[in-house]
Amino acid sequence: MFPKVENGLFVLMRAELATGKILDIFNNYAVKPDQEDYTICENIEIALRLAKSIVQDNNKVECYIYNSNDIVQYRVTIYEIEKY
Fold first, then answer.
1. Distance between CA 12 and CA 35 in Å, rounded?
2. CB neighbours of 30 closer than 8 A, spacing ≥ 6?
3. Residue 10: its pLDDT value, please?
4. What is the mean pLDDT of each run of 10 residues along the chain (84 residues)?
5. Domain residues of the chain, as ranges?
6. Which residues are paired to 12 by β-bridges?
7. Cα gap 15→6, rounded to integer Å
8. Torsions phi, psi of 45, nearest 5?
9. What is the pLDDT of residue 1?
10. Of the candidates 64, 51, 53, which has an alpha carbon nearest to the alpha carbon of residue 21?
């Protein structure tokens, strides 16, 4: 379930680049309801920094950053940063 966060916070989610399957915070497939599959960030700068670090550590992962209204703001891969 997608988290509800306070205004001004951002949600970072990870996915497998090749398939789009959602990953947990340890880059395992998120298949169980108790797996932690998102990270809440205090601002967009922190979210972007974390996303860049994640994809640099594992180039088979992509990150999506959502605002508090559940709208995608960025997609981050090893190849590019897309702003929506």
1. 15
2. 21, 22, 23, 24, 37
3. 97
4. 86 97 97 94 98 98 96 97 97
5. 1-10+19-41+53-68
6. 39, 65
7. 23
8. -65, -45
9. 62
10. 64
Whose tokens are 């959602």? That residue is 22
Q: Where are the alpha helices (DSSP H) in 5-84?
A: 44-57
pLDDT at 14: 98
Q: Please, what's the b/e burial string for 28-57 (b: 16 or more CB within 10 A of its CB; e: otherwise)? A: eebeeeeeebbbebeeeeebbebbeebbee
Return left, alpha or beta for 62; rule: phi > 0 is left, psi -120 to 50 is alpha, else beta: beta
Whether the CB-CB separation of 63 and 73 falls below 8 Å is answered with no
**CA–CA dist 43, 65 (Å, integer):** 11
Burial of 8 (0-12, 13-18, 19+ CB in 10 A): exposed
DSSP assigned state of 29: B
